[in-house]
TrEMBL record:
Residues 40-164 form the MD-2-related lipid-recognition domain. This is Phosphatidylglycerol/phosphatidylinositol transfer protein. CDD domains: PG-PI_TP. InterPro entries: Ig_E-set, ML_dom, ML_PG-PI_TP, NPC2-like. GO terms for biological process: intracellular sterol transport. Belongs to the NPC2 family. Monomer. It comes from Pseudoneurospora amorphoporcata. It holds the Pfam family E1_DerP2_DerF2. Keywords: Lipid transport, Signal, Transport. Catalyzes the intermembrane transfer of phosphatidylglycerol and phosphatidylinositol. Residues 1-17 form the signal peptide. GO terms for molecular function: sterol binding.
Amino acid sequence: MRLSAAVIALLSTSATALSVFRENSVSASDELDVPGKSPLKFCDAAADRKDDIITIEEVILTPNPPEAGQTLTIEASGIVKEAIVEGAYVNLQVKYGYIRLINTSADLCKEIKNVELECPIEKGRISITKNVDLPNEIPPGKYTVEADVYNKGDKHITCLTATVTFGRKTLGFFDDL
C-alpha cells in the first residue's frame, strides 16, 4: 500500500533482514499491529496516528513467517490522504540484536520505485504487490527494523516497525539424529 509500499521497498532493498525472520505467523491482535498477516507494527498508538498521511488497511506476507531461500510476496493496501511528493523521506534503522546495522535517511520517492510506484503518489486508495527473493543464507538472530516516514515539509506519513528472528537452517541430514 502507500507507506507500506515505500517501507517494504526500503526493507527489501536495504534490509533483507525484515523479510527473513523465523517467527510464528503474526496476525493483528492489538492496536499497534498492522492489520493483516505480517510482523509489522505501528510505532505509535492509534490516537497518535490520526493525522498520518497514510492509513494502512492491510499487509499480508506470504509465506508468513518468511523463509530464507524463498520468494516473499508482500501485498499491501491503504488510503493516501494527501499526495506524497518529491522531498518525502524515510528515517530507517535496522538492528541485529543490539547492534545497529543501518541508521540512515533515504529519499522515499527514489525508494518506492522498487515497488513500481513514483512520486507524486496521489490522494486515494492504493494497493501494491511485490515479490522479494530472499537469500538462502541469512545470519540467524533477532532483527529489528523501524521506518519513520515523512512527506516534504516534515508532515508525518507513518511509522512502522518489525522484529523478526531467523533461526539456523540445517542441511537436513542431521534432522534424524
